[in-house]
Design brief:
Elements: E1 3-13, H1 17-28, E2 33-36, E3 53-55, H2 65-83, E4 88-89, E5 93-97, H3 102-114, E6 119-121, H4 123-129, E7 140-144, E8 148-150, H5 152-165, E9 169-171, E10 176-181, E11 186-190, E12 193-202, H6 208-212, E13 221-232, E14 245-248, E15 256-260, E16 272-277, E17 281-282, H7 288-292, H8 296-309, E18 314-327, E19 334-338, E20 341-348, H9 358-371
Parallel strand pairs: 1-2, 1-12, 2-9, 5-14, 12-20
Antiparallel strand pairs: 3-8, 4-8, 5-7, 6-7, 10-11, 11-12, 13-16, 13-17, 13-18, 14-15, 15-16, 19-20
Helix pairs in contact: 1-5, 1-9, 2-5, 2-9
Bound molecules: flavin-adenine dinucleotide.
Residues 14-19, 36-39, 46-48, 50, 53-54, 175-176, 203-207, 211, 225, 227, 275, 323-325, 350, 352-356 line the site of flavin-adenine dinucleotide.
Length: 392
C-alpha cells in the first residue's frame, strides 16, 4: 500500500546544479520546500560534476542570454558571500578561431550589443600573448578578462547549504517514479510514498523527458560527453595564472574543443581538463555502463586532436570521465510552466551550456512556481517557441 506523506508547499525534483539553486531560492522566500534526488551527494551520474564549468558573457549561442548572465554573475557573488564558499574562478576566457568563425563573430556581436568588456587579438598578437595555441593557423582570439569557470560541486554544495539554512528539507537517495498535476496541485510518487504539493519544479536533467512523458511537448535528449584530464608539460604554463579557460572553433565536425587550466583544490583529477562541446552519443541515463564508460578510442582521439591544436603543451591523458548533456531541439534551455498544468515548472534541456546560469535559473524557477511569472528576461526560453504556429 502506498504511504502518503503530508503535503508540502513546494517540491524540487532533482538536486543537481539547477535543482539545488531552485531549492535555495524557494526556501529563501519562506516557502516550505522539499528537495528530492535519487543519488547521494555528490554524484557523477548526472551533469553537474567534473570540477569546472566555463562562465562567460560574450555569448555566441545568442545575445539574449547576456542579461541572464549578468544576473547569474551577481548570483554567484551573492552565493559566495552568503555561504563563504568559493565557486567562481576568474581566469578570463579566451575564444579562439579563424576571423570569420562563429565563436569570434557571434561572441563579439553579443559583447558589443551588451557592453561586455572584451579584447580582440589578431594572429600576431595571439602568437605573442597566448603562445600555447597553434601558431601557424592564423587564429584570432577574443579575450574576456572577467570571465572564468565555476566549480559545479562547490556550487551545488553551497546552494544546498543555503537551502538547509533557510529551512528546506532534503531527501536522498529517493527515486521519483512518476509525476502528475493540474493548475492547482501536483502529485509526486516516489519509491516509498506519494507526496502532494502546490508547486513542483522538475529539474531532473537527463531524466526530464522520461519523467514528464506526454506532459512535455518537446523531447529533451540525453547525450554522453567525455571529459579528459591531461598532464601539462609545464605546469606553470597551464596554471590559472598563465592560461585562461578557452574554446576553439576551428571547423571540427564534432564541435569546439575547450579547456580549463589545472587548479589546485579542484575536486577532479589535477590536470588540464579538456572537452569537446557539441552533441554527443544518445544514451539511456539509467544504463550505468553507458554513462560512465569512456573508451580508449575517445581518449586517443582527444590526444591526437589536442597535440595539433596546443602543440607541445600537454603530456598525456591522466583520467577520463563521462557526463551528460540534455539536448533540446534548438539547443536553447526550456524554462517554463507546463501548459494546462500550472503547478508544474520545468527547467531542462540545458544542451551542454547551462551550469553557469544556475543561480538565475533557480531564481526564475522560484518566480514561476510562486508567482506564475518572472521579471527575469527569460521569456525566450519558454515552451511557446515550439508551438506549431511559431515554427517557420
Ligand atoms: C562534460 C560537460 C561539460 C559542460 N561544460 C559546461 C560549461 O563549461 N559551462 C556551462 O555553463 N555548462 C556546461 N555544461 C552543462 C551543465 O553542466 C549542465 O547544463 C547542468 O549541470 C545541468 O544541471 P541539471 O541540474 O539540469 O542536471 P543534473 O546536475 O544532472 O541534475 C539532475 C538531478 O536530477 C536527479 N534525478 C533525475 N531523475 C530523478 C528521479 N526520477 N528521482 C530523483 N532524482 C532524479 C539526478 O540524480 C540529478 O542529480 C557541461 C556539461 C557536461 C556534461
Amino acid at each position: 500500500m502506498t504511504r502518503h506523506m503530508k503535503p508540502v508547499d513546494a517540491i524540487v525534483l532533482g538536486l543537481g546544479g539547477m535543482g539545488a539553486s531552485t531549492l535555495a531560492a524557494l526556501s529563501r522566500r519562506g516557502v516550505d520546500a522539499l528537495g528530492i534526488d535519487q543519488e547521494p551527494l555528490p554524484h557523477a551520474r548526472g551533469s553537474s560534476h567534473g570540477g569546472s564549468r566555463i562562465i562567460r558573457r560574450a555569448y555566441f549561442e545568442h545575445a539574449d542570454y547576456v542579461p541572464l548572465l549578468n544576473a547569474s554573475f551577481e548570483g554567484w557573488r551573492r552565493l559566495e558571500q552568503a555561504s563563504g564558499s568559493t565557486c567562481l574562478h576568474r581566469t578570463g576566457v579566451l575564444l579562439v578561431g579563424p576571423a570569420d568563425s562563429t565563436i569570434i563573430q557571434a561572441s563579439r556581436s553579443s559583447a558589443d550589443a551588451h557592453g561586455v568588456p572584451v579584447e580582440l587579438f589578431d594572429p600576431d598578437r595571439m602568437r605573442r600573448r597566448f603562445p600555447q595555441f597553434a601558431r601557424d593557423r592564423g587564429w584570432w582570439g577574443l579575450f574576456e578578462p572577467d570571465a572564468g569557470f565555476v566549480d559545479p560541486e562547490a556550487g551545488v554544495h553551497a546552494h544546498l547549504a543555503m537551502a538547509r539554512r533557510s529551512g528546506a528539507s532534503i531527501r536522498r537517495p529517493m527515486k521519483v517514479i512518476s509525476v502528475d498535476g493540474d493548475d492547482h496541485e501536483a502529485v509526486v510518487r516516489t519509491d516509498r510514498e506519494e507526496i502532494r504539493t502546490n508547486r513542483l519544479v522538475v529539474a531532473a536533467g537527463a531524466w526530464t523527458s522520461s519523467l514528464l512523458g506526454d506532459h512535455l511537448s518537446v523531447p529533451l535528449i540525453p547525450n554522453r560527453k567525455a571529459m579528459v584530464w591531461f598532464e601539462p608539460v609545464d605546469p606553470r604554463a597551464c596554471s590559472p595564472a598563465e592560461m585562461p579557460a578557452w574554446l576553439i572553433d576551428d571547423g571540427h565536425a564534432a564541435g569546439c574543443y575547450y579547456g580549463v587550466p589545472a587548479w589546485p583544490g579542484q575536486s577532479a583529477p589535477l590536470g588540464v581538463k579538456i572537452g569537446l562541446h557539441g552533441p554527443g552519443s544518445v544514451v539511456d541515463p539509467d544504463a550505468s555502463h553507458e554513462i560512465t564508460e569512456i573508451t580508449p578510442e575517445v581518449v586517443d582521439r582527444f590526444t591526437v586532436d589536442l597535440a595539433d591544436r596546443l602543440p607541445g603543451v600537454l603530456k598525456g591523458p591522466i583520467a577520463a570521465q563521462a557526463c551528460l548533456y540534455t539536448m533540446s531541439p534548438d539547443e536553447h534551455f526550456v524554462v517554463d510552466r507546463l501548459p494546462g498544468r500550472g503547478s508544474m515548472v520545468v527547467v531542462g534541456g540545458f544542451s551542454g551550456h547551462g551550469y553557469k546560469f544556475a543561480p538565475v535559473i533557480g531564481e526564475t524557477a522560484a518566480d514561476l512556481a510562486i508567482d506564475g511569472a518572472t521579471a527575469q528576461p527569460a521569456g525566450f526560453l519558454g515552451l511557446d517557441r515550439f508551438r506549431e504556429d511559431q515554427l517557420e
